[in-house]
Structures are given as structure tokens and as C-alpha cells.
Design a protein that fits this description.
With 142 residues, the chain is an all-alpha fold. The protein starts with 5 loop residues before the first helix and ends with a helix. It has 6 helices and no strands. The protein is 79% helix and 0% strand. The chain has helices at residues 6-24, 30-59, 65-69, 73-82, 88-106, 110-138. It has a single domain (6-138), classed as Four Helix Bundle (Hemerythrin (Met), subunit A). It is elongated.
Length: 142
């Protein structure tokens, strides 16, 4: 299998750009709110894209597609660690990102957005690392 991580890389770039624009916007302005909303949606999309790519990779390790589709995200992350795609420390951080993402899906108040913004720098670093591992180990040859 040859994995294409271009969409994930684009999601990461968009998320980083949204964060820069959020920080540059006037505090409490409508522009800052627009960028905050973009960050939340970008955060969700980046996670979902990451999990789809992990499922594709895990199929190469003999896991069936149907079983992976029924597997919880946290169990997917554990499988990624078992196959040395992620470290246990990374998986623990991804658990926190996933818990936060589940909160964003149900609570659209300011509190969840602040928590997402707090987690964002480490999330960006971790998802960049994941994209690099996926591209290097499973991606298309240049």
C-alpha cells in the first residue's frame, strides 16, 4: 500500500494558519471569533483525517477493515502504539485530544474553545510527527 498524506499535511497547514490569524486578531473581536471557530473545525477535521489514515495503515498489519471500522478511536491509537507508529506518550496525549474533540462536538461554549486553544500547540506538534511517520514509512516514494 502507498499512503498519500497530502490532505493531512494541508489540514495541518490550515490549522496552523488559523491559529496565527486568531492570535493576530483584535481580542474579543468578530475576526477572532471567526478564526477560533475555524480552529475548532480544523482541529476536528485534522483528527478525523489522522484516524482514517491510521486505519489504512493498520490494515497492512493484518487488521480487517470491518473490525477497524468498529474499533474505538482510543483502541486505534493503542494499535498504533503496538505497531510502533506512535509512542505510548503520544497515545496518551492523543487520548486528551480525542476527549477534547468529543467535548467540542457536544458543547459549543467558550470553555471548550479555550481548552482546544490550550491543547493546540502540542496537538500540532504531535500531528506533524504522525504525518511525517506515515509519509516516511508508508507514503509514496518521491
Amino acid at each position: 500500500m502507498t499512503l498519500n498524506t497530502d490532505h493531512l499535511a494541508r489540514c495541518i497547514h490550515t490549522l496552523e494558519s488559523s491559529l496565527v490569524l486568531y492570535r493576530q486578531a483584535e481580542p474579543e473581536s468578530i475576526n477572532q471569533e471567526v478564526f477560533r471557530n475555524a480552529i475548532v473545525k480544523g482541529y476536528e477535521l485534522t483528527q478525523e483525517t489522522s484516524f482514517k489514515l491510521l486505519k489504512r495503515v493498520l490494515k497492512d498489519f493484518g487488521h480487517s477493515g470491518n473490525k477497524l471500522d468498529a474499533t474505538s478511536v482510543k483502541d486505534l491509537l493503542r494499535l498504533a502504539a503496538a505497531h510502533a507508529i506512535m509512542t505510548l506518550e503520544e497515545v496518551e496525549r492523543w487520548f486528551a485530544y480525542r476527549d477534547n474533540r468529543n467535548t467540542t462536538a457536544h458543547d459549543y461554549g467558550e470553555g471548550f474553545a479555550k481548552e482546544t486553544l490550550r491543547l493546540l500547540p502540542s496537538f500540532i506538534a504531535d500531528v506533524k510527527g504522525l504525518e511525517q511517520i506515515l509519509r516516511t514509512r508508508f507514503g509514496k516514494a518521491d
